[in-house]
Amino acid sequence: MNLAAVITAAGSGSRLGRDLPKALVPIDGVSLVRWAASYLASVTDRIVVTAPADAIDDFVAALDGVAARVSVVPGGSSRQDSVAVGLAELADLSDDDAVLVHDAARPFMPVAVFGRLLEAIEHHDAAIPVLAVVDTIVSGVGGEVEYLDRDRLGAVQTPQAFRIGAVRDAHKRAAADGIVATDDASLVLHYGYRLATVEGDPLGRKITYPEDLEAFERRFSSR
Ligand code: C5P
């Protein structure tokens, strides 16, 4: 079984309040996208990165020397479109091969989680890392509020692992059916494929706000 990875990094990251694409923001002198690619390079030698169309050269430079064959392609107008573009770059892989779809915004997800995901897709079409929810969660904000049972909830992280045939098929059908989702496993589940969960990790938290970045800077800065 071949294994490749897609890193989505084409977002602007405007909530971070920086004037460069989020994935190029450095921690300890290394851009977020390079942190993510370096972790993935320990399990795969082939990585596709979706980048903002006007920053391709900067991303190629940021990824220079990562220990894998890295292609940088212009992303789409949504995360879902960007993943579809990334998967299209892997057209030569066969349906039974595997792909990890990861967000550059979660660059510090530990390699141990990749292992759990890859083991899970030996018997499933897809696997997601899930972290227990620590906050009490409500739905219907601004309207009729409903409290949800926290013990049954989990926060979904990336990377998500797939048999590539399943995620390709789900993306193609979702595009035709006009279905939009915030992750890829929900599409795969929607079209009837078998989805497993594995334990996620707090280090896989998404970097969204300046405070998230500061927390990782404190943890990963060597100076
Ligand atoms: O916006 P959000 O935080 O959900 O984005 C998740 C990931 O998707 C980020 O790594 C971002 O760079 C990526 N993305 C993308 N193409 C887009 C929008 C977001 O690759 N058009």
Describe this structure in words.
The chain has 223 residues and is of the alpha/beta class. The protein has a single domain (3-126, 156-209), classed as Spore Coat Polysaccharide Biosynthesis Protein SpsA, Chain A (Alpha-Beta Complex), CATH 3.90.550. It contains seven helices and twelve strands. Strands 1, 4, 5, 6, 7, 10, 11 and 12 form an eight-stranded mixed β-sheet that branches. Strands 2-3 form a two-stranded antiparallel sheet. A hairpin with a 6-residue loop joins strand 8 (138-139) and strand 9 (146-147). Helix 3 (79-88) packs across helix 5 (164-177). It is globular. The chain starts with a strand and ends with a helix. The mean pLDDT is 97. Residues 8-11, 23, 50, 75-79, 82, 103-105 line the site of cytidine-5'-monophosphate (C5P).
Short key terms for the protein model shown above:
223 residues, 8-stranded mixed sheet, globular
CATH architecture: Alpha-Beta Complex
Radius of gyration: 17 Å
- The overall number of domains is 1
**Overall 3D geometry?**
globular
Overall structural class, as computed from helix and strand content, comes to alpha/beta
Please indicate the percent range of residues in DSSP E strands (runs of 2 or more).
15-25%
> What's the helix-strand series?
EEEHEHEHEHEEEEEHHEH
Class, according to the CATH hierarchy?
A: Alpha Beta
User: What is the CA–CA distance across the termini?
Assistant: 41 Å
Number of helices: 7
Tell me which ligands are bound. cytidine-5'-monophosphate
Main sheet: strands, sense, barrel: 8 strands, mixed
The CATH superfamily bears the name Spore Coat Polysaccharide Biosynthesis Protein SpsA, Chain A
Query: Low-confidence stretches at least 5 residues in length (pLDDT < 50)?
Result: none
- Bin the helical content: 25-40%
Average pLDDT score: 97
Per CATH, what is the topology?
Spore Coat Polysaccharide Biosynthesis Protein SpsA, Chain A
